[in-house]
Amino acid sequence: MNDKKKWLWQLPFLLFLIGGTIFVIRQQHQAVYQHDHGFIFGTVYNITYQHDKNLQHEIESALQQVDASLSPFNKASIISRVNRNEAVKVDVLFREVFEKSMQISKDTEGAFDITVAPLVNAWGFGFKHDTRPTPSAIDSMKALVGYKKVSLTPSGQVKKSDPRIMLDCSAVAKGYGCDVVARLLSRAGVTNYMIEIGGEIVTHGVSEKRLPWHIGVTVPTDDTLATQKDLQAILNVTDRAMATSGNYRNFYYEGGRKVAHTIDPRTGQPVQHSLLSATVLAPDCATADAYATSFMVMGMEKAIKVLERHPELLAYFIYSGSHGENQVWYSPALRDKIQE
Fold first, then answer.
1. β-strands 43-50, 150-152: how paired?
2. What is each CA distance from 47 to 117, 170, 200, 244, 284, in whole angstroms?
3. What is the model's pLDDT at position 225?
4. Phi first, then psi: what are they for 24, rounded to 5°?
5. How far apart (Å, rounded) are the C-alpha atoms in residues 49 and 47?
6. What is the structure's pLDDT at 190?
7. Which domains does the chain have, with CATH numbers?
8. Which of 31, 98, 112, 129 is the most interior residue, by most CB within 10 Å?
9. pTM (2 decimals)?
């Protein structure tokens, strides 16, 4: 009898719990998926998220803050003022990207370096495209390149070993922008979203079809107009960030020689190896973005050694085989996430 009374006393609570669960599930299914598109950082963004309110105004405001901090094309940005050696205190966004960049530069022995801008420009992939730089010009510019030549003071100012040193966070800014939007959506209570800025991606939860997010890896074919859409593979990227770096879209030919946009900061030369594209999955997109760039500089063998030290990173590499055919290598832990 006592057990029956105890059960009857608990029944209202159980009914409330069941009803609440049904209500939450129903709300999740009824809330619409928003689809926002726009232009930022010199590229397009596409953001899909489940929320009963459109948040594009808030999203674009957050992205503009990143632009105002890190865009070298924005003359009023913090990084532009740093490059002009103005007395400017960096903001939280700049500090976070700077510190992450220094950490990854150290981990990759300088393969990733936000001071590489003069060399990138000299080879025709930055603000200008002149003739091929001479060996002596490259040697001169290498004196202004090196992540150990810059630091942040306790007061929040960038200290340079030479005032001519320039910073360029383009190899991490898009990924970081994805992370900033992901944080905004999470604060707004959004649990299902996919953020894509210029090919860099962050996902969480499920898609509009109530399925895991699946993202394609493009076949690396010479394609400066980005019209090639053939996919090498499709990856399950749910609750992860993904970034891809490659030499198959940003390049030019000079004297019959292909000049790729990936410049090794340590040699001052465009990289020449078999790795065609590097796709990295990481807990955050700034990290994925930076390591994807690093791996394109390092080449596959050295990149794999870095991956052995970082179980939180997964990679999908496409490289040129001995007969010029595309070959694939990927992290063993990625096997179950691949749909060929």
1. unpaired
2. 29, 20, 11, 18, 16
3. 43
4. -65, -45
5. 7
6. 98
7. 212-340 (3.10.520.10)
8. 112
9. 0.85
